[in-house]
TrEMBL record:
Coiled coil: none annotated. GO terms for molecular function: 4 iron, 4 sulfur cluster binding; catalytic activity; cobalamin binding; metal ion binding. InterPro entries: BchE-like, CHP04013_B12-bd/rSAM, Cobalamin-bd, Elp3/MiaA/NifB-like_rSAM, Methylthiotransferase_CS, rSAM, rSAM_horseshoe, rSAM_sf. SMART domains: Elp3. SUPFAM superfamilies: Radical SAM enzymes. Residues 186-426 form the Radical SAM core domain. This is Radical SAM domain protein. Residues 17-153 form the B12-binding domain. PROSITE patterns: B12_BINDING (PS51332), MTTASE_RADICAL (PS01278), RADICAL_SAM (PS51918). Keywords: 4Fe-4S, Iron, Iron-sulfur, Metal-binding, S-adenosyl-L-methionine. NCBIfam families: B12_SAM_MJ_1487.
Length: 443
């Protein structure tokens, strides 16, 4: 992994001339690396940026130390930030310090889930441009125009502050063709799980995914995926993981029906390349599966081709009324069926629940508690979350999630027997801050 200097690795790769006119500095903390790897990969694939100096900075201390050198070497320095809503406060402090110490010596671009959902608030932090939605094509065009000193305000997919003080969004781009861009940055050796699907048709009220990537699923082709599996394998990287909103929806034209043939063709093709040397992970971190898509057929494919010992199943609530309110599109019965199938197959069923969802009443909490108890008796483990409102979602202005006393008592019992895991306590505190921000606009 390169630090702020970035020069040794880039020189070996023949990518960088230290006297090149423009440099791109990615702030590179662990939670944001997958998206940044994808953006860096898109830039690597663009001939115009063959000599672009790219730096990947893992810590705030190294960022400020590095910028002292980088701003002295390059006439144009772009700093790229990607962040989630829970990172808002630390990112706001970082931007404030960057503007204070470097001012117009750097050009600040922000993207990712929070800037996409709250572009006006993000501009208010002090960034120059927000990339809204998918970033590959937008960033390539934006950096090209900025580097050539052309008017970048015509670039689709950005939000910026006009000189008169107004906010302007240049409009959405067409959805990205995943086959056009690599899933990671090959030349910089920044590898990630392979993103195989974008887009989600369910548009759950608490989730940003469908709003960022659209409701129509787009799949990377099997041939394209296998090409990158071969590339990873040649480099000795034989643990193959996937990024997708729903692992068992691969190949589905609508994201709701299951295409078992496509799913098996993908897994069979990966296994043929990595053989017994490597491992496949399907339906476990960093992806999950919807309960109604957990069937004998899909789980048998996991058992036949993959190596994960668990499935992460998105239940979210034990109340059908709340599931319907969230537009989940599945039944409580689907959750029980999914757990039973998973456990019978010898896999651990890790079941996601979100506590304190908007509209919950005591009766809904009671139903969720009963469902959790029954699932645990059937062999499941609970992955606990507290509801946090997120910008751009239907629940953006809803109150922060609260864990009831009854539910907290159950969690404590489950925690003692290692039947629950997650960061629900931290999320409960953070949700209050987020709700205050989204309803009042103040950090």
């Amino acid at each position: 992994m390169t630090n702020w200097t970035g020069d040794r690795q880039n020189q070996v790769l023949g990518l960088v001339k230290l006297n090149s006119d423009m440099a791109l500095v990615f702030y590179y903390p662990k939670p944001n690396r997958y998206s940044i790897n994808t953006l860096a990969g898109a830039l690597e694939e663009t001939p115009e940026f063959g000599e672009l100096s790219m730096y990947f900075v893992e810590s705030e201390r190294d960022l400020f130390t590095g910028l002292k050198t980088i701003t002295g070497k390059h006439r144009k320095v772009v700093v790229g930030l990607s962040f989630f809503t829970p990172q808002l406060w630390e990112t706001a402090a970082l931007i404030s310090r960057l503007k204070k110490e470097y001012g117009n010596a750097i050009f600040l671009i922000a993207g990712g889930p929070h800037p996409t959902g709250d572009p006006e608030g993000t501009l208010g932090l002090g960034v120059d441009v927000v990339v809204r939605g998918e970033g590959e094509e937008t960033l390539v065009e934006l950096l090209g125009k900025f580097g050539r000193e052309e008017d970048y305000t015509s670039v689709k997919g950005i939000v910026y502050m006009e000189k008169r003080g107004g906010i302007r969004f240049t409009g959405r781009r067409r959805p990205v063709n995943l086959n056009k861009y690599p899933p990671f940055a090959i030349k910089h050796r920044l590898f990630s799980p392979i993103e195989i699907t974008r887009g989600c048709p369910y548009l759950c009220s608490f989730c940003q995914t469908g709003h960022i990537f659209g409701p129509q699923p787009r799949h990377r082709s099997i041939e394209n995926i296998l090409g990158y599996v071969r590339l990873l394998t040649e480099r000795g990287l034989t643990d193959i993981k996937f990024i997708t909103p729903n692992a068992f929806s691969y190949g589905s034209p609508d994201g709701k029906t299951i295409n078992v043939n496509k799913l098996e063709a993908l897994l069979r093709g990966v296994r043929a390349i990595i053989g017994n040397r490597g491992r496949i992970f399907m339906g476990s971190f960093p992806s999950e599966v919807r309960p109604e898509h957990v069937t004998e057929e899909t789980v048998n494919l996991v058992r036949k081709y993959a190596n994960n010992d668990n499935l992460i199943i998105g239940a979210q609530s034990g109340s059908q009324r709340i599931l319907d309110l969230c537009h989940r599109g599945h039944k409580v019965e689907d959750i029980f069926r999914a757990v039973d199938i998973t456990v019978r197959a010898g896999l651990v069923a890790n079941v996601d629940f979100i506590f304190g969802l908007p509209g919950e009443e005591p009766a809904d909490v009671k139903q969720t508690i009963q469902v959790i108890k029954e699932l645990v008796e059937r062999g499941a483990r609970v992955h606990a979350h507290t509801f946090m409102p997120l910008p751009q979602t239907a629940f953006a202005k809803k109150p922060a999630g609260r864990i009831s006393k009854e539910l907290e008592n159950l969690i404590n019992i489950l925690n003692a027997s290692h039947k629950v895991y997650g960061h629900w306590r931290e999320q409960e505190k953070l949700a209050e801050k987020i709700a205050r921000y989204l309803t009042g606009g103040c950090l």
